[in-house]
Amino acid sequence: MVTSAAGLLVRLVAALCFFQYVQAKTVTYDFNVTWVTANPDGLYDRKVVGINGQWPLPVIEVDKGDQLVVNMHNGLGDKRASIHFHGMFQNGTNEMDGPSMVTQCPVSPGSSITYNFTVNQNGTYWYHCHTDYCYPDGYRQALIVHDKDAYFNDMYDEEYAITMSDWYHEMIEDITFIDKSNPTGAEPIPNAFLFNDTLNSSLSVEPGKTYLLRLINVGAFVAQYFYIEDHTFKIVEIDGVYTDATEASILYISVAQRYSVLVTMKNSTEKNYPIVTVADSQLLDTIPSDLRLNHTNWLEYNKTAAHPQATITVADASDLIPFDDMSLVPHDRMELLPEADLVIDLTVYMENLDNGADYALLNNISYTRPKVPTLFTVMSAGELATNSEVYGDYTHPMVLGHNQVVEIILNNGDGGSHPFHLHGHNFQLINRAPAYGEHFYDYADGDPVAYDPSNHTAFPKYPARRDTFVLPPQGYFVIRFVADNPGVWFFHCHIDWHLQQGLGMTLIEAPLQIQERLTIPQNHYDVCEASGVQSKGNAAGNTVDYLDLSGQNKQVAWLPAGFTAKGIVAMVFSCVSAFLGMAFISVYGASGIKMANKKRKTEKAAAEGSASTDS
Ligand SMILES: *[C@@H]1O[C@H](CO)[C@@H](O)[C@H](O)[C@H]1NC(C)=O
Ligand SMILES: *[C@@H]1O[C@H](CO)[C@@H](O)[C@H](O)[C@H]1NC(C)=O
Ligand SMILES: *[C@@H]1O[C@H](CO)[C@@H](O)[C@H](O)[C@H]1NC(C)=O
Ligand SMILES: *[C@@H]1O[C@H](CO)[C@@H](O)[C@H](O)[C@H]1NC(C)=O
Ligand SMILES: *[C@@H]1O[C@H](CO)[C@@H](O)[C@H](O)[C@H]1NC(C)=O
Ligand SMILES: *[C@@H]1O[C@H](CO)[C@@H](O)[C@H](O)[C@H]1NC(C)=O
Ligand SMILES: *[C@@H]1O[C@H](CO)[C@@H](O)[C@H](O)[C@H]1NC(C)=O
Ligand SMILES: *[C@@H]1O[C@H](CO)[C@@H](O)[C@H](O)[C@H]1NC(C)=O
Ligand SMILES: *[C@@H]1O[C@H](CO)[C@@H](O)[C@H](O)[C@H]1NC(C)=O
Ligand SMILES: *[C@@H]1O[C@H](CO)[C@@H](O)[C@H](O)[C@H]1NC(C)=O
Ligand SMILES: *[C@@H]1O[C@H](CO)[C@@H](O)[C@H](O)[C@H]1NC(C)=O
Ligand SMILES: [Cu+2]
């Protein structure tokens, strides 16, 4: 019969279309990276890193399962570059991860690199330069992975991606930071805070509809609070991990973190509502009188109605009580991982080294880049790849066994908070103190409090997972993940200033499996050649004796004995209880560089301590 034949045809066509729809496709972006001029805050024209002559940069959008190819040409002329696709696991494609001297050579001016990988994740990500601290010059933007199967797809009508960031008027290289003139390591103060690379913007909304807002802090330093007047929302994703839809009203979004939230509009179209962002002024050593910390943008229900400024009732950002990300439950109900096979116990310190400048250390090491990218050392070291010595002392290498459960305990010996990011994984958030909320700064005034494995609050049954997690001032966090992604993965503070100071380390996960599975494309070797960086050898560039590290790049020497925490720091980190007894004495505390009225931020000056006698 005609009707049934037609029906069959329709179904056949539908099936074909569906087949095409689910077929993974290749999405290709050609990025010609050049300098352009922009003035996003309306205050200052500056040179920014543009792509194909444009800034704001293009948002990368793919569907889950797609092959993403980004051909990047470095047309900057005077600066090396790269791209890290933040949050992408690069499972099987470690060489596409992006950080210079970790998984690739820097791309020098005039040369090109191709990134090519399969996206098998969902959610909200971003991409940014990961060479010589280049992303604060504007080289960062959203990367969205659409998922036709997301459990919340039928819960919203439209979506918006929104970045927020701090903004500097000076070029990165013109900012003096790690220098003896700045012994307390006071971070450069931004000149502005942007909302989606502009200000005063209106999101056009329709009454009754629900919107998915993908919020991404693409800044280099400062976390921001986010809320919408008279509206609550439901969190459905953090850092690419779906969560049970959870009601919240204020978020704290550190640099590199992402939140997707569902917001349902009111039925009335009489008013427009402020979307409020407030910079976390606790991170700032000084607050210039002309720096605007908070901004109003709008949910615009009605173009012709007033666009009122936010009514901010708190005096200080830290009086806003944000939602605690640790309380989120992942939608996939992945359970708490078992006891770890490997525990990495670390403490953050900020210290003056011998040149008088302030550095950041994990235990006693300030990350210093090797002469050969660590992944290239893995690929050329043969069986010695499992010996962490070949990666040098100052990359702070740690070799992980394949499929080990790894726990990282991160204690904070510093009075500032630090958003730590792990490449290649997300991780379970199993403990943190103090928690987000009114007690977040509780440890900031006294001595640091270290994690005590025999006395901690209960671990969640279904711990929240994300890829960037904030370490509280003088507190700690504990995270777990499975080493099921062979590769070289950087673990570092995402405050770009702190990374410059050395706040990072290198995890070399299953090196023999990396060698088996990975083929670094010729193009990436060509990039090394063009930049004059060796693509073989140990961290010191020795291709003959991988255990001979002479000539390796070293961190700046310790201050001379008598002045210094050398040795004592080493002793302290190996013994957590000694840490509690350590006395912090400010060497440079009286230098007056840090504003005295920073009530909660303890001095970051060199810590000279004596370990307690029971250590
Ligand atoms: C990149 O853009 C610059 C400036 O527009 C142009 O001179 C150059 O030829 C472009 N390079 C490539 C590889 O497209
Ligand atoms: C935003 O609005 C303020 C006044 O409300 C104005 O001073 C400023 O120039 C505007 N900035 C931009 C980038 O539009
Ligand atoms: C990207 O990788 C895929 C899978 O390895 C390969 O088939 C394809 O040719 C690559 N494309 C480019 C442009 O390198
Ligand atoms: C990614 O999406 C799939 C399908 O929607 C879902 O089953 C999976 O749990 C998601 N992954 C994460 C980490 O949320
Ligand atoms: C934010 O900026 C990006 C890039 O310019 C743009 O694609 C996106 O639509 C903007 N989002 C909103 C909510 O306007
Ligand atoms: C808007 O109207 C719909 C339909 O009448 C109703 O279900 C909904 O609760 C209303 N929303 C609000 C926020 O009042
Ligand atoms: C929009 O706002 C104007 C000014 O307040 C008001 O006169 C108008 O009725 C509103 N329009 C709608 C559709 O609510
Ligand atoms: C909000 O901005 C105004 C104007 O710059 C400032 O006076 C106020 O202290 C800020 N409030 C917060 C909580 O940042
Ligand atoms: C365990 O930790 C709690 C909270 O930090 C503390 O009050 C208590 O004294 C600790 N107990 C022991 C036995 O150390
Ligand atoms: C990487 O892929 C392997 C399968 O090839 C899988 O077992 C593992 O869980 C993946 N790891 C991550 C972090 O995606
Ligand atoms: C750090 O401490 C360890 C253990 O005491 C020591 O072997 C190593 O040389 C120290 N590293 C630095 C850079 O001082
Ligand atoms: Cu930091």
UniProtKB/TrEMBL annotation:
Assigned keywords, A-Z: Copper, Glycoprotein, Membrane, Metal-binding, Oxidoreductase, Signal, Transmembrane, Transmembrane helix
Keyword Cell membrane included in the entry's annotation: no
GO CC aspect terms: high-affinity iron permease complex
Entry keyword Transmembrane helix: yes
Pfam families xrefs: Cu-oxidase, Cu-oxidase_2, Cu-oxidase_3
Superkingdom per UniProt: Eukaryota
GO molecular function: copper ion binding; ferroxidase activity
Membrane topology field: Single-pass type I membrane protein
Location(s) in or outside the cell: Cell membrane
GO biological process, one term: cellular response to iron ion starvation
InterPro entries: Cu-oxidase-like_N (IPR011707), Cu-oxidase_2nd (IPR001117), Cu-oxidase_C (IPR011706), Cu-oxidase_fam (IPR045087), Cu_oxidase_CS (IPR033138), Cu_oxidase_Cu_BS (IPR002355), Cupredoxin (IPR008972), CuRO_2_Fet3-like (IPR044130)
Family listed: Belongs to the multicopper oxidase family.
Protein name: Iron transport multicopper oxidase fetC
Provenance organism: Penicillium canariense
Lineage, top ranks: Eukaryota, Fungi, Dikarya, Ascomycota, Pezizomycotina
